[in-house]
Design a protein that fits this description.
Elements (H helix, E strand, L loop, with lengths): L6 H23 L2 H22 L5 H20 L2 H11 L14 H9 L6 H13 L3 H8 L3 H17 L12 H20 L3 E2 L5 H17 L4 H14 L25 H17 L4 H14 L8 H14 L3 H15 L1 H9 L2 H4 L3 H13 L3 H12 L3 E2 H11 L4
Parallel strand pairs: 1-2
């Protein structure tokens, strides 16, 4: 008998295999709600059985098989007598050959099919994060900076749109790929972002989501080698991932970029990411992911934080703000401005973002740091408290508490 499976091991299987299982069932049955529900039931059964029986030889296969069998049972129970004979023939018929097309990976296929032009881009991204990454509605709402009820309604509307419009789950044709690329890249990047800094839980990083996003990024680069934004996104993820081992202490506490031991950065990933950035620069077709990758390349070239070319970073953020304006871009630009023009200039820029980033903990954390640097500790304490109230990630909360201590 296999050794008992711990809750942590079962949770790791869920995080690693949820997207694969849901993608497999959607492809088989064409029903989003059925796929989600049956995969959830399969994991519930795993929680009941695996602590006693141990992990099966193929946990992913066990989940997919269990979910598929439960889906078949559900369809049989709900079918009319007239339907059952035809359904039984269908379910026991030989498996049809796999559908041919440019996208062969089930999870990447799911992204492209969810990014159908009949859906608004925010709905495309949110729905795919839910199905592929297994993110909760709360996590997705925070990624979009919207209230949870708003995101819940958006997800329901997206599913209803797919059902009512009979949007097929099939491999998109070559001609369809470029038109869906923007939303696909947004999905992959948000999966990576959630993995890089989890919105909830005890750990700062979700390794499974980072690895999955990079895997998908590499597949996209193979699928669409002439798309500079695909290379830009892959470069951005690689350069960010290169710092992972230095982002936390041995106890799992976060370490800010300025305090990281740069000798621990992964030089192979940095070299690969920088090479991709150079390829993008030669194409001279700048896009948001390429510029963000260039910003990270500047950081990766500096031996110390003092050696960082902050003026170049500000210029890159200026360019990014033109191509992809957002309050988060403006917030990160303000952090760079603080290194060039000082904290007072940066604080003025940050305060202008208050109405749009009030619910985001990073806004309050940046503001608190700038206030502390200006000697306005009373206001800094209030800003740190506001940041603490807006994150459920325990590692980030521990960092904020440590940074708050010197200000009283």
């Amino acid at each position: 008998m296999a050794p008992a499976a711990t809750p942590a091991e079962i949770g790791q299987v869920f995080r690693a295999e949820h997207g694969r299982a849901v993608a497999s069932l959607i492809r088989a049955f064409g029903d989003i709600d059925l796929a989600e529900e049956m995969v959830q039931e399969a994991f519930t059964e795993a929680v009941r059985r695996w602590p006693a029986e141990g992990l099966p030889p193929s946990p992913a296969g066990w989940i997919i098989t269990t979910a598929r069998n439960r889906a078949i049972d559900r369809l049989r129970r709900e079918a009319s007598r007239a339907d059952r004979h035809a359904e039984a023939q269908l379910l026991h018929a030989p498996t049809e050959p796999a559908e041919e097309g440019p996208v062969r990976d089930d999870r990447l296929r799911l992204i492209f099919t969810c990014c159908h032009p009949a859906l608004a881009t925010p709905a495309q991204v949110a729905l795919t994060l839910r199905l592929l990454g297994g993110l909760t509605t709360v996590e997705i709402a925070r990624a979009f900076l919207v209230p949870e009820p708003t995101m819940a309604q958006r997800l329901v509307r997206a599913k209803n749109k797919i059902r009512d419009a009979r949007i097929p789950y099939r491999v998109p044709r070559d001609a369809d790929l470029p038109g869906r690329l923007r939303a696909v890249l947004a999905v992959v990047y948000l999966v990576f972002t959630e993995g890089h800094t989890a919105t909830s839980g005890d750990a700062l990083v979700r390794d499974d989501l980072c690895a999955e996003a990079i895997r998908l990024g590499r597949l996209l680069a193979e699928l669409m080698p002439d798309e500079p934004e695909v290379r830009g996104l892959l470069a951005l993820m690689l350069l960010t991932e290169a710092r992972r081992s230095a982002r936390t202490t041995p106890e799992g506490d976060p370490v800010l970029l300025a305090d990281q031991d740069r000798a621990r950065w992964d030089r192979d990933l940095i070299a690969e990411g920088q090479a991709l950035v150079r390829q993008c620069l030669r194409r001279d077709q700048p896009g948001p992911y390429q510029i963000q990758a260039a910003i990270n390349a500047v950081h990766s070239e500096a031996a110390t934080v003092q050696d960082t070319d902050w003026s170049q970073i500000v210029r890159l953020y200026d360019q990014l703000a033109v191509l992809a304006p957002s309050p988060i871009v403006s917030l990160h630009r303000a952090v760079a401005v603080a290194e060039v023009e000082g904290p007072a200039a940066a604080l003025g820029l940050v305060d202008e973002l208050g109405s749009r980033l009030e619910r985001h903990h990073l806004f309050h954390a940046v503001r608190a740091d700038l206030l502390h640097r200006l000697g306005r500790d009373r206001e800094a304490r209030d800003a740190y408290d506001a940041a603490l109230a807006r994150t459920d990630n325990e590692a980030e909360r521990a960092l904020l508490r440590r940074k708050r201590q010197p200000v009283g």
